Amino acid sequence: MNKTELVKEFLQSMRAELLAEDVFFQALARTSGREAVLKHFSGTDVYRKAAWSRPEADGERVKVTGGGLILVFELADGRISAIRQQALFGAAPTPAAPVKLTEEMKKLVDNALATRHPMMVAYADASGQPILSFRGSTQSFSDDQLAIWVRNSDGNFLNSIASNPRVALMYRDEDTKATYQFQGRARVSTDEAVRNRIYAKMAEAERNHDPARTGVALLVDLDRVEGWAGMSPNGPVGKVRMLREAGK
């Protein structure tokens, strides 16, 4: 068989003899050895049910696309010696659901400072310049709201959202690869019950920075939440895409 026929045959049959003994599979993680690579491919519907394109020779390599993936095969001595995988940009997006934070997402946000994954906030100043800052007081407030205690009531952050309330927040755990981006509209709340709740819930280290409680309670009404709970060799797992207007 030529190179393209060999790749086509492997995707259809998953025959072990088409793989070299020291073959490896490289995605976000590396899997080495014929038995391990074959187990990876045959143990999931991701590869068996994908509608693979016709294999195309690309120099010494062969490429196929399908199932939102690109596979690049390298061959040596009539066998597959390496398979490299990456996501196919332009694949169908995750279906949108209404904004409703899961309990796990709330827990990640609420414990972000304690677990050393502080939340980052982005906003635009009066000139339109994007600004990034870490906000250790960030917390969940409801199914579709986050909250922040802003210590400096005269700072650039509050002045900026007064004219442009749109903000974005990012959570990232490099160990588990959990990654979430939150987009919404920030607004100040003067309701004393809201202030008390946000102040009491934030981490003690943050409260210690403002024992006089001179800060401002900020609510973020979420319009969009996207991300994933972690990573597997095939890419993100537990993907979410939430839109405020979804389902309306």
Give the arrangement of secondary structure elements.
Elements lengths: L2 H11 L5 E8 L3 E3 L1 H9 L2 H4 L7 E3 L2 E6 L2 E8 L2 E9 L15 H8 L9 E5 L5 E5 L4 E4 L2 E6 L5 H8 L2 E7 L6 E11 L2 H10 L2 H4 L8 E13 L1 E3 L2 E3 L2 E4 L5
Parallel strand pairs: 1-6
Antiparallel strand pairs: 1-2, 3-4, 4-5, 5-6, 7-8, 7-11, 9-10, 10-13, 11-12, 12-13, 13-16, 14-15
Describe this structure in words.
The protein contains seven helices and 16 strands. The chain has 248 residues and is an alpha+beta fold. It folds into two domains: 3-87, Roll (Nuclear Transport Factor 2, Chain: A), CATH 3.10.450.50; 103-243, Pnp Oxidase, Chain A. The longest helix has 11 residues, at 3-13. The radius of gyration is 24 Å and the shape is elongated.
Low-confidence stretches: none
**Fraction of residues in β-strands:** 35-45%
Helix content: 10-25%
Provide the residue-averaged pLDDT. Answer: 92
Largest sheet: 8 strands, antiparallel
Count of helical segments? 7
Q: What name does CATH use for the topology of the largest domain?
A: Pnp Oxidase, Chain A
Give the helix/strand class: alpha+beta
The number of distinct structural domains comes to 2
Structure summarized in a few sentences:
By secondary structure, the chain is an alpha+beta fold.
